């Protein structure tokens, strides 16, 4: 989920997630300092220093040197396992996703290099484990490093609770929590300024009020159209979430919906009627962004308590310019999340 997985893809978690997958091109490569606890990963990483922020980003070549501390989650549905571990003396979160099959690998898949291990037979039905050659068995890997407690808590399996957030609860609990918390969205500003991920941009409307950048979400492999997932990040700053949208934002929403869908059809061949275009509440980071997924894709976070179709948002604001300031909005929180604790402190009953 996003916070609440979201509050914890929290702004800081999303920033770290993107940083580890960005090209390390902000400065010259430097050698990582050695110590006894990190010697095993000395030759496994390339350290790159961002001179402006004195941040060291690392690009890993292997998983050698990772010490597994615990399994945070393991999903058979999404073929994903999330592991908490350490690299040297720093915490890390490793997300491993099995990649979907694509048609272009079939000729290599159906070959003598794919070994079958027979496990079961009943009449005409045979069951096998198929051992594939390495190039066909790649696992999409996301590394959050160094990882904070907030990153680790985001992926840890905990009970979820449904919150019915009235306007009063938003003003007295949620908004003060957001204002008092530090959610780093510098990575968003880097994208908007073309400092990072410029080569991944699919489409851009540069208008400062109604413009946006459209690029693939990191959860997508960029190839499998049935799992298509892109995100539009608006240029206008100061729109934190669905709660901030009013009648003045209808031109922005309409433009993102129309131009984003047209760009996707031109590049990927999916029509507007084959796309699910929606906003999360709570979002994973507090700068307005809009999700585009293939209608055929059972994407994370498309549940009714989290996702709001942009077409419906436009219609609701058309009926009432302050619809999202006046309405009760549902969202989920995870047990132990900071917002969950704030709600409990203020008397909310789960």
From TrEMBL:
<keyword id="KW-0539">Nucleus</keyword>
<keyword id="KW-0507">mRNA processing</keyword>
<feature type="binding site">
    <location>
        <position position="217"/>
    </location>
    <ligand>
        <name>substrate</name>
    </ligand>
</feature>
<keyword id="KW-0378">Hydrolase</keyword>
<dbReference type="GO" id="GO:0000290">
    <property type="term" value="P:deadenylation-dependent decapping of nuclear-transcribed mRNA"/>
</dbReference>
<dbReference type="Pfam" id="PF11969">
    <property type="entry name" value="DcpS_C"/>
</dbReference>
<comment type="subunit">
    <text>Homodimer. Associates with components of the exosome multienzyme ribonuclease complex, such as EXOSC3 and EXOSC4. Interacts with NDOR1.</text>
</comment>
<dbReference type="GO" id="GO:0008380">
    <property type="term" value="P:RNA splicing"/>
</dbReference>
<keyword id="KW-0963">Cytoplasm</keyword>
<keyword id="KW-0007">Acetylation</keyword>
<dbReference type="GO" id="GO:0000340">
    <property type="term" value="F:RNA 7-methylguanosine cap binding"/>
</dbReference>
<feature type="region of interest" description="Disordered">
    <location>
        <begin position="1"/>
        <end position="45"/>
    </location>
</feature>
<dbReference type="GO" id="GO:0006397">
    <property type="term" value="P:mRNA processing"/>
</dbReference>
<feature type="active site" description="Nucleophile">
    <location>
        <position position="289"/>
    </location>
</feature>
<dbReference type="InterPro" id="IPR011145">
    <property type="entry name" value="Scavenger_mRNA_decap_enz_N"/>
</dbReference>
<feature type="binding site">
    <location>
        <position position="197"/>
    </location>
    <ligand>
        <name>substrate</name>
    </ligand>
</feature>
<dbReference type="InterPro" id="IPR008594">
    <property type="entry name" value="DcpS/DCS2"/>
</dbReference>
<feature type="binding site">
    <location>
        <position position="219"/>
    </location>
    <ligand>
        <name>substrate</name>
    </ligand>
</feature>
<protein>
    <recommendedName>
        <fullName>m7GpppX diphosphatase</fullName>
        <ecNumber>3.6.1.59</ecNumber>
    </recommendedName>
</protein>
<feature type="binding site">
    <location>
        <begin position="280"/>
        <end position="291"/>
    </location>
    <ligand>
        <name>substrate</name>
    </ligand>
</feature>
<feature type="binding site">
    <location>
        <position position="187"/>
    </location>
    <ligand>
        <name>substrate</name>
    </ligand>
</feature>
<dbReference type="Pfam" id="PF05652">
    <property type="entry name" value="DcpS"/>
</dbReference>
<dbReference type="GO" id="GO:0140932">
    <property type="term" value="F:5'-(N(7)-methyl 5'-triphosphoguanosine)-[mRNA] diphosphatase activity"/>
</dbReference>
<comment type="similarity">
    <text>Belongs to the HIT family.</text>
</comment>
<dbReference type="GO" id="GO:0000932">
    <property type="term" value="C:P-body"/>
</dbReference>
<dbReference type="InterPro" id="IPR019808">
    <property type="entry name" value="Histidine_triad_CS"/>
</dbReference>
<keyword id="KW-0597">Phosphoprotein</keyword>
<dbReference type="InterPro" id="IPR036265">
    <property type="entry name" value="HIT-like_sf"/>
</dbReference>
<dbReference type="GO" id="GO:0005634">
    <property type="term" value="C:nucleus"/>
</dbReference>
<comment type="function">
    <text>Decapping scavenger enzyme that catalyzes the cleavage of a residual cap structure following the degradation of mRNAs by the 3'-&gt;5' exosome-mediated mRNA decay pathway.</text>
</comment>
<keyword id="KW-0508">mRNA splicing</keyword>
